[in-house]
Amino acid sequence: MKKVMSLFMMVILLIGVLAACGPDAKEGASADGDKKSGDAAKPEKLIVWEDKDKSKWLEAAAADFEKENGIKIEFKEVEMATKMRDQLRLDGPAGTGPDVVTLPHDQIGQVATEGLISEINVEESVTGSFTESSIESQTYDGKLYGLPKSTETPVLIYNKALVNEVPATMEDLQAKAKELTTGGKYGFLALFDNYYFANAVIGGMGGYVFGDEGGKPNPKDIGLNNEGAVKGAEFIQSFYKDGLFPKGIIGENGGSALDGLFNEGKAAFVMNGPWAYQSYKDSGIEIGVAPLPKFASGEPMKTFVGVKGWHVSNYSKNKEWATKFIEYATSEEVAKARYEQTFEIPPVKALAEDPIIADNPEAKAVADQSAVGIPMPNIPEMAEVWKPMADNLQTLVTGKTEPKKSLDAAAKAIEQNIEANHSK
User: Fold this and answer.
1) Which CATH architecture has domain 42-152+306-374?
2) CA-CA distance, 215 to 213, in Å (whole number)?
3) CA 311 to CA 258: how far, in whole Å?
4) Which residues contact 388 (CB under 8 A, 6 or more apart)?
5) Which of 168, 188, 278, 292 could form a disulfide with 269 if both were Cys (CB 3.0 to 4.6 A apart)?
6) Phi-psi region for residue 178, left (φ > 0), alpha (ψ -120 to 50) or beta?
7) Ordered per-residue pLDDT tens for the chain, 424 residues
8) Where are the CATH 3.40.190.10 domain residues in the chain?
9) What is this structure's pTM?
10) Helices in 315-354 by DSSP H: which ranges?
């Protein structure tokens, strides 16, 4: 009986060996041959959407990726801030959309909730190569939805022909502004009626948008009218009460008015972002750039940090390979090459010490300020914050309301909007 069973098992093993040697089997491959890599079928191409006027770096990067992986990268430019998301909503379901998109991180919660982008899975060694805050910005509801490609935040920009030293504190900067503001010229200008910029003061003095609950933003805990936030609003209001800001930098045209005064050599310091560097230089201004001064208390200006990321479309049929591409696109070497062409600073830890950034004051200022700033909340409820804050900050800076009353009204409106639009 034992001999019979042994012969039977030998026959079974022999059949298995012969099958493995058959014409359809190749070492390390499936029936799809070299069309497979791991568990994912290798596509002929991946479609990548990059931001407008930012794709030049992709020419070399795409060629290298194709050489290494045998996959062509087809790319096109779509304006990121307002059009990328809307175009994905249309083209994704129609089957004509991309595999990879780029988005500002504050849109992640909304597009993830809509099912437009896919959760990604990467090794800890990959996420560990980025700054902690930049990875946090790509995370929603405990899931990772992208990898960061660049970071930006407001900094202090100054005209070297007018000043050659950065004040040590924000209180010192205000004092310097009083000294220099005269005859149609200004010491320091900021768009403090715009909550994107005002949060630096409000947050630096103890206010916050949403509280933290288990590492996630809690939209039921709004800290925009707490004691610290009111102190911040009082500090903001003092610039207007003391006549340090002209009336023209309030509202929709405020940014243009601020830029105009700086470009004309009529403002010594401005709070603005790296997007403004080139236009200032084109006006013939020799600019200096530094992180924003801390408050006398030692607390930093908690600017909002915006992180742009790479994401995998949930409509892509090639999610694994799309993920491999965004790992490649955010790797140290490729991120550096992108920075050299776009001047958008990658939040890759290793590059912070690279001379290309460390020895460039304009880039280093953004990197240093980003380290003390806070990522804009990326949950859908954040959409309900901007308008109430803008409306009430404008009544504050025009002297129509006092700080506590203004922020109480903003917080109430935000709570009501969240309840109306996001309650389940």
Assistant:
1) 3-Layer(aba) Sandwich (3.40)
2) 5
3) 34
4) 409, 410, 411, 413, 414, 417
5) 188
6) alpha
7) 433 334 334 333 433 433 444 433 333 333 333 444 456 789 999 999 999 999 999 999 999 999 999 999 999 999 998 899 999 999 999 999 999 999 999 999 999 999 999 999 999 999 999 998 899 999 999 999 999 999 999 999 999 999 999 999 999 999 999 999 999 999 999 999 999 999 999 999 999 999 998 888 999 999 999 999 999 999 999 999 999 999 889 988 999 999 999 999 999 999 999 999 999 999 999 999 999 999 999 999 999 999 999 999 999 999 999 999 999 999 999 999 999 999 899 999 999 889 999 899 999 999 899 989 998 999 999 999 999 999 999 999 999 999 999 999 999 999 999 999 998 6
8) 42-152+306-374, 155-304+379-422
9) 0.82
10) 319-329, 332-342, 349-352
- In angstroms, rounded to a whole number, what is the distance separating the alpha carbons of residues 200 and 223? 14
Residue type, 247: K
Q: Which residues pair with 222 in a beta bridge?
A: 210
Reduce the DSSP state of residue 17 to 3 states and report it.
Answer: helix
The fold adopted by the segment(s) 155-304+379-422 is D-Maltodextrin-Binding Protein; domain 2 (3.40.190)
Cα distance between residue 116 and residue 98, in whole Å: 11
Phi-psi domain of 246 (left: phi exceeds 0; alpha: psi -120 through 50; beta: other): beta
Measured N-to-C along each axis, helices 58-69 and 332-342 cross at an angle, to the nearest 10 degrees, of 160
Residue 263: which residues within 8 A CB-CB, separation 6 or more?
279, 280, 283, 285
What is the rounded distance in angstroms from the CA atom of residue 154 to the CA atom of residue 204? 14
Q: Which residues pair with 218 in a beta bridge?
A: 211
Where does 122-242 have alpha helices with state H?
124-127, 132-137, 170-180, 195-204, 227-241
| Residue 164 DSSP one-character state | -
* Residue at 73: amino acid letter: I
> Alpha carbon of 301 to those of 62, 232, 290, 392, 414: distances in Å?
39, 10, 13, 21, 23
Q: Which of 141, 249, 125 is nearest to 197 (CA)?
A: 249
The answer to whether 308 and 344 have CB atoms below 8 angstroms apart is yes
**Burial (CB count <10 Å: 0-12, 13-18, 19+), residue 148:** buried
How many residues make up the chain in this entry?
Answer: 424
